[in-house]
Amino acid sequence: MAYLDINHVVRKFGGLVAVDDITVGLEQGEIFGLIGPNGSGKTTLFNAINHYYPANSGEIIFKGIPITRKSTHEICRLGIGRTFQVVKPLRRMTVLENVMAGAFLRINDASKARDKALEVLDFCELMHRRDVPAKDLPIADKKRMEIARSLAGDPELILLDETAAGLNLVEIEAAMAIVKKIRDSGITCFVVEHVMKFIMGISDRMMCINFGREIARGTPREIASHPEVIKAYLGEEYAKGK
Amino acid sequence: MAEIKTMAKKSWFLPAILGIVFVAIPPFLGGYIQHLLILMMMWITMATAWNLLGGYCGQVSFGHTVFFGLGAYGGGLLLLHWGISPWWGMIAGPLLAAIIGIPIGLITFRLRGPYFALSMLALGETFRIVFTNWVSVLGGASGVVSSRTFGINKLPYYYIALTIAASSVYVVYRLMHSKYGYYFVSIREDQDAAEALGIPTTKYKMYALIPSAVFTGLAGAVWMNYIAYIDPEVVFSLTGISIMMILAVMVGGAGTLWGPILGGVIFVLLNEGIRATVGPISYLIFMVIACLLIMFLPDGIIGDWAKIKRVFRREKPVYVGGE
Question: Do residues A34 and A74 share a domain?
Fold first, then answer.
């Protein structure tokens, strides 16, 4: 049994099958990349894992515990943190207060939570922004703050949803370094991403989905040259031309 | 939140000075001023209680009059049926408020959208109508008549109201500097993000609702003992209590510690001042003033303090870049 087991998960929105029978297992300590064209169901799969849009059928098991029917906050307490594709900063709170809100998951005392938050801000290189209201941050720092906020709750698995979207090249390099640092600290990373430079550069293993179904799985190199992946991204004729 | 903390740090002596003034001065004041002070303490308590749930936790209630009315009737019903001293209402009233508040919260806090706000609005009106018409059990439209324990002496009532106002502010202050406060504000700012941070949002909304209901109920119990008469049309009034509590908080500054205190004081001064000079159109004038304040100071006097200072120093506004 894998660390995070996703078994035949299906999620429908009316007649649309957004996630169609996905089965995948994540191993502890790896960076697992998930790619796919727009609307292929990547974020929906994340939402099924943390029960934001619960799976219609199938089962999700984390460390041997079935979490399919647990609520979002219980899943977080079990050790699965996440960030959002469309960032959700706690707008009128400062960066430090945002991260403290995350730290209170396992720490009850305010001054200890503050220490923990400062430690995580340091880890994510956000210390210089600590007293800025979250709404005034540029997008790159908002994304980084979401990572910090999630890390403050000491997750064992973190779901990173399009951490590099909207970032420039320098910011992408920095974000890659942080994800690697997170993995090196022992946290398993499940990464959804469109920016190929980012996801190809950090993933240990990858999966590509389209229309809610798995079309390829393997190392970044295998995925990059897989005809189904090329077809999904560039169209039929490019796949044949290769 | 950040501004509150720095303000609190800079002005730690302000509560101490206010405390001494409010304890030592009132015995030397006239009866009418004492009356105004009692009303102020009551409104500070109510605005602070509403602010905990509405201002900090973002759960806007259009029916806090339910808790105020139940606070008043807690003692009233004991007196009416068993002839027990209405002072027991200081326990029974808040208890009743919490007992009614809990199921409403448990049902509506699970839903997203305006369900809690609207349920409270409906509940307030329901209670007003039921209490006005159910004569045998609730006393009906003629209400409950009590008598003042301390005769014409207002000071005991004042000190009770002061104690309750001070403890409501203290409780809110302590809550807001703990895990609870951070969780309340997180829920207000983004409920999805809060859930994803592991915050059981329904539970923490209840943690904000219960003290809010209890302190509003306490204010109702003090009022019942002080006025010595409950009129269901007054204690379950939508415009007189529910809406005025919201306005007092908005004028002072929602989501700030000092906002509801200032708002409560301003409300009583305006309301009494205007009523004394122009009579029954006082509500209209108060509403116009509230509208103007909300137009120009949407975050209230405390929330927009920086803006007010700029106007007086004739500085140009600074625009902070947002998204």
Answer: yes
Is A40 part of a structural domain of the chain? yes
Predicted confidence (pLDDT) per residue in A164-205, tens digit: 888 999 999 999 999 999 999 999 999 999 888 899 999 999
Q: Report whether pLDDT(B321) > 80.
A: no
Q: Tell whether the model's pLDDT for residue B223 goes beyond 90.
A: yes
Q: Is A33 on the interface with B (CB under 8 A)?
A: no
Same domain, A174 and A117: no
Q: Do A135 and B1 touch (CB under 8 A)?
A: no
Biggest CA pair distance of chain B: 65
Judge whether A43 is closer than 8 Å to chain B, CB to CB. no
Most A CBs within 10 A among B197, B202, B204, B304, hence the mutation to make, goes to: B197
ipTM confidence score: 0.92
**Pairwise CA distance, residues A89 & A134, whole Å:** 6
Question: Measured between CB atoms, does B199 come within 8 Å of chain A?
Answer: yes
- Torsional sign, CA B89, B92, B98, B99: negative
Facing B2 at nearest CB: one of A76, A81, A94: A94
Instruction: Find the range with the poorest average confidence among A101-105, A176-180, B277-281.
Output: B277-281
Residues 6+ apart with CB under 8 A from B10: none
Say what the pTM is. 0.91
Whose tokens are 């996801």? That residue is: A199
Q: Any chain A CB within 8 A of the CB of B23? A: no
- Cα A123 to Cα A30: distance, rounded to the nearest angstrom: 19
Residue from the list B182, B190, B198 with its beta carbon closest to the beta carbon of A100: B182
Residue A141 is assigned to a structural domain of this protein: yes
